[in-house]
Amino acid sequence: MKLIPYEKFQIDTGLSSAELVQRISSITGENKFFNFSPSHEFSGQVTENEFEIVKNISYRNSFLPIIEGKIEPKSTGALVTISMRLHLLVMCFMSVWFSGVGIGCLLVMSKMHEFSWPMLIPFGMLFFGVVLVSGGFWFEASKQKRRLIELLSNN
Fold first, then answer.
1. 50-55 vs 42-46, strand pairing mode
2. What are 105-142's pLDDT values in tens digits?
3. Which of 56, 59, 63 lies closest to 42, judged by CA?
4. Is the dihedral angle over the CA atoms 126, 127, 128, 132 positive or is it negative?
5. pTM (2 decimals)?
6. Given Cys at both, which of 53, 89, 100, 119 links 44, Cβ 3.0 to 4.6 Å?
7. What is the number of domains present in the chain?
């Protein structure tokens, strides 16, 4: 498992660009702020050569991957380049979190000659943050990658 919550991969398919857009559109609903009972597997926007979607889930996960895809037509089908990343606000919040905790860890390390158990709190918070982000992102990203490969293959 990688630490940085970002995944980029390509799917080479024999399907045409129009067929790919139709398949993605068929499982993608309108992006709504409050969507308590979604009727589609994903929500987002799909255009003729790119899409930005997110999986509709029935539980809270702030680290759910945003899926961005670009469809490039080829002579024998199309190439879909997909990237999965965190939401911009989540990236900003976690950058502030890790910066603050990192500074705390550096301060603790500068005072190691006066060790006491509460000094380990910033290191625990750093570990907790890494596990939280990595677990929340990669748990969903692996499932969504399999689903997209299944959906966009030639079958």
1. antiparallel
2. 999 888 877 878 888 899 999 999 999 999 999 999 99
3. 56
4. positive
5. 0.86
6. 53
7. 1
